[in-house]
């Protein structure tokens, strides 16, 4: 293994020294039997105990108030620290000393921005404080999370702390999964779910407090929620749009409390946006972190990450702390897990046990708990995580962070309307958050698998908010169904590019969700009922016409699972591949194959054994069944009859095409494809049943960019369908095969931008 001196150390020595000096002072003060909270202030970087400051936004700098905490609480807090009772109980969390002052600040102000280091207890504690203070008598406390896993795991944690069953007083709600009941008063939910609730209840009448958590993540839904709740908590007298004005009055809720919480310091921006709302800062508790860079860029960051993890494990005593590795996605995490298992097996009993804990968005619930279990003595935990561990989840006991410097991020080209997931370098802000994860329980170390030069010169300061790099069709449809028409003047915190808005309007028009005046049509109103991408909801709405809604919702459910359906164990690859091919018999295309998987499973009465025999993930299938049940319920709501027509594959494929006609592609000579509307060279993903078949015309579900731009979930289509189904979008000349011969040279490159 590479030796540790392969890393440059930046600032480590100074911080270490500063810390030890401060720690000494702290110990002195303790020995003197007189607790001096100010000694501790210096013991932690950026630490300021004794006073929680309530600062007003930059527009209103002059006003400022200090909220003093209760001193007894403070002492207890420090005691908790000294006893090392990090996990001992709620009172040891950094937010605890500020309980009273925080509640006072919430009482005094309708909108409050709360800032505190990750792990300080914002998400798990603040809703409980509000509950204890009686807020839940007036309505629920809703706390939004950008990620499903975070919503579930935090709800589980809080119900455990309160000693009640998850789903009773404390519950969570994520897309396709509602774990709440009549009793629920603390509701953790994805920001997307609150957005959907907003559609049905624009004054948020069931809530007394809404906490938009992890606001710094600036997800699309969070940003849209901001714009919407702003209208709920304040009346904008100067709003030039009289319509919006009247709506705001109807929605106005002077009694609703709005909390915006964030782990990073750019809180002034939130404050400014919410008319100079005060900022409540929870003093952090962070130990120094030694930052190490590689001397030269890494060619293979995954390998470098694995080597670094093993090296730490082998050279450092096991009781000394766990390792957190940031990777970009499920596949990468699974690869890393396999390699790590293989290599540690190679080392046998010569090394301490290494417990590998993966965590990513689609990790099954029952496996999520594993990462929070304390590491047994003599062993070490290595957590392989996506960005979810950057701020949404806090895992105790991490001492080493390995940061390859990449994240999988959505990117969108408004010109072509194409969206893909790209592995992109992180921002400096992200890099610092990641590093900070190692300094929670003691001094930590962060290994950045990139050079100091890269960090200072190549990384952006902040991540671009999602709203500026995504397809907005879904959002535009939601806003339209809320009656918000003037999107260009919607109060966005950071407006999306006008081009992206226009593109979204264009797509919704093409899907017949909007008429030419930009108003919601009957079709659009139905589509808005489905918590799905507009193309997927259009496919469902169209199935009414083709009399195959039963089959289409199964396909839609299978497409919405988000994780893989087939698995392929290393030692049984041939069997697994054969089982998979069975469903593709007759080259029916991937959509029909998904339908066959679902129907066959249903025929066996949802048998688990059948899944094993066919190398299919039971969990994914169960999820598909849940999603399908909900879609069936929604069909009823939009008055689409459930009709089955399994024999008519053409009808099924026409329904698919009705939603996905903008995703059509024609084969070129060399097995590559060219998208019809905005010419770009793409390929059929090797996992597709049609990868060897190469039909002349295809419709695809999505594009993914790995080594090439791949189409995933592909079906064959007849070009005349395009003109039949979307005459306003395709003309005959678009689908004439002749056109391909006159293709200009070098178009592949030209379409790259
Ligand atoms: O929201 P914030 O980052 O400020 O902190 P939090 O999520 O409320 O976490 C507070 C504490 O609860 C941390 O020490 C976490 O390790 C712990 N926690 C946990 O053990 N299990 C969870 N599922 C969530 C939090
Ligand atoms: Mg949190």
TrEMBL record:
GO molecular function per UniProt: ATP binding; hydrolase activity; RNA binding; RNA helicase activity
Entry keyword Signal: yes
GO cellular component, as recorded: catalytic step 2 spliceosome
EC number: 3.6.4.13
Keyword line: ATP-binding, Helicase, Hydrolase, mRNA processing, mRNA splicing, Nucleotide-binding, Signal, Spliceosome
Keyword Nucleotide-binding recorded: yes
Catalytic reactions of this protein: ATP + H2O = ADP + phosphate + H(+)
Domain (Helicase C-terminal) ranges: 301-483
Residue ranges of every copy of the Helicase ATP-binding domain listed in the record: 103-283
GO biological process: mRNA processing; RNA splicing
Enzyme class: hydrolase
Family: Belongs to the DEAD box helicase family. DEAH subfamily. PRP2 sub-subfamily.
Protein name: RNA helicase
Native species: Cynara cardunculus var. scolymus (Globe artichoke)
Higher taxonomy: Eukaryota, Viridiplantae, Streptophyta, Embryophyta, Tracheophyta
Residue span relative to the full protein: 388 to 1140 of 1140
């Amino acid at each position: 293994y590479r030796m540790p001196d392969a890393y440059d150390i930046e600032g480590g020595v100074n911080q270490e020294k500063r810390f030890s000096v401060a720690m000494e002072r702290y110990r002195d003060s303790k020995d003197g039997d007189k607790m001096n909270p100010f000694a501790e202030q210096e013991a932690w970087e950026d630490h300021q105990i004794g006073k929680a400051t309530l600062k007003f936004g930059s527009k209103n700098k002059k006003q400022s108030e200090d909220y003093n905490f209760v001193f007894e609480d403070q002492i207890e807090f420090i005691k908790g620290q000294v006893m090392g009772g990090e996990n001992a109980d709620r009172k040891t969390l950094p937010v605890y000393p500020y309980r009273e002052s925080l509640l006072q600040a919430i009482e005094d102000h309708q909108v409050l921005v709360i800032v505190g280091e990750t792990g300080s207890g914002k998400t798990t504690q603040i809703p409980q404080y509000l509950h204890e203070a009686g807020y839940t008598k007036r309505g629920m406390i809703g706390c939004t999370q950008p990620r499903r896993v975070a919503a579930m795991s935090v709800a589980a944690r809080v119900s455990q702390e309160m000693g009640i069953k998850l789903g009773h007083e404390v519950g969570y709600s994520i897309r396709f999964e509602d774990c709440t009941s009549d009793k629920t008063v603390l509701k953790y939910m994805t920001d997307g779910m609150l957005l959907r609730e907003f559609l049905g209840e624009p004054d948020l009448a069931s809530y007394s407090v809404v906490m938009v958590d992890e606001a710094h993540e600036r997800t699309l839904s969070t940003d849209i929620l901001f714009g919407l709740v702003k209208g709920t908590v304040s009346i904008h007298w100067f709003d030039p749009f009289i319509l919006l004005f009247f709506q705001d009055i109807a929605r106005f809720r002077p009694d609703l409390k709005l909390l915006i919480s964030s782990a990073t310091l750019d809180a002034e921006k939130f404050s400014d946006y919410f008319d100079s709302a005060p900022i409540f800062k929870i003093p952090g508790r962070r130990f120094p972190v030694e930052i190490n860079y590689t001397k030269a860029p890494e060619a293979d960051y995954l390998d470098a990450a694995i080597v670094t993890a093993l090296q730490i494990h082998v050279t450092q005593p096991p009781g000394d702390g766990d390792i957190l590795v940031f990777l970009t996605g499920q596949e990468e995490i699974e690869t890393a897990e396999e390699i790590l298992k293989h290599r540690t097996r190679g080392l046998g009993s010569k090394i301490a046990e290494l417990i590998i804990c993966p965590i990513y968005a689609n990790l099954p619930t029952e496996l999520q708990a594993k990462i929070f279990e304390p590491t047994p003595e003599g062993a070490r935990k290595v957590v392989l995580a996506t960005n979810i561990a950057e701020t949404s989840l806090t895992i105790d006991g991490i001492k080493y962070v390995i940061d390859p410097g990449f994240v999988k991020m959505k990117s969108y080209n408004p010109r072509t309307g194409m969206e893909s997931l790209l592995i992109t370098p992180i921002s400096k802000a992200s890099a610092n958050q990641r590093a900070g994860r190692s300094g929670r329980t003691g001094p930590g170390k962060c290994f950045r698998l990139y050079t100091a030069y890269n960090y200072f010169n190549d990384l952006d300061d902040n991540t671009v908010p999602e709203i500026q790099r995504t397809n907005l069709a879904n959002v535009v449809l939601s806003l339209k169904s809320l009656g918000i028409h003037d999107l260009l003047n919607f109060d966005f915190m950071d407006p999306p590019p006008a081009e992206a808005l226009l593109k979204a309007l264009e797509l919704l028009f093409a899907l017949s969700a909007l008429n030419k005046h930009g108003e919601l049509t009957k079709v659009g109103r139905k589509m808005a009922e489905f918590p799905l991408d507009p193309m997927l909801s259009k496919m469902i709405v169209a199935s009414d016409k083709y009399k195959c809604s039963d089959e289409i919702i199964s396909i839609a459910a299978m497409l919405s699972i988000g994780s893989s359906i087939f698995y392929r164990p290393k030692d049984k690859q041939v069997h697994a591949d054969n089982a998979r091919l069975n469903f593709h018999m007759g080259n029916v295309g991937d959509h029909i194959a998904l339908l066959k998987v679902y129907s066959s499973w249903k025929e066996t009465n949802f048998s688990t054994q059948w899944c094993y025999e066919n190398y299919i993930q039971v969990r994914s299938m169960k999820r598909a069944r849940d999603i399908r049940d909900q879609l069936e319920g929604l069909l009823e709501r939009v008055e689409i009859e459930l009709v089955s027509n399994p024999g008519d594959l053409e009808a099924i494929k026409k329904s698919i095409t009705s939603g996905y006609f903008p995703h059509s592609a024609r084969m070129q000579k060399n097995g590559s494809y060219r998208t019809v509307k905005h010419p770009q060279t793409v390929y059929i993903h090797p996992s597709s049943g049609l990868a060897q078949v190469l039909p002349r015309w295809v419709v695809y579900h999505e594009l993914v960019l790995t080594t090439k731009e791949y189409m995933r979930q592909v079906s064959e289509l007849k070009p005349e369908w395009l003109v039949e189904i979307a005459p306003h979008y395709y003309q005959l000349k678009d689908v004439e095969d002749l056109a391909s011969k006159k293709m200009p040279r070098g178009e592949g490159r030209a379409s790259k931008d």
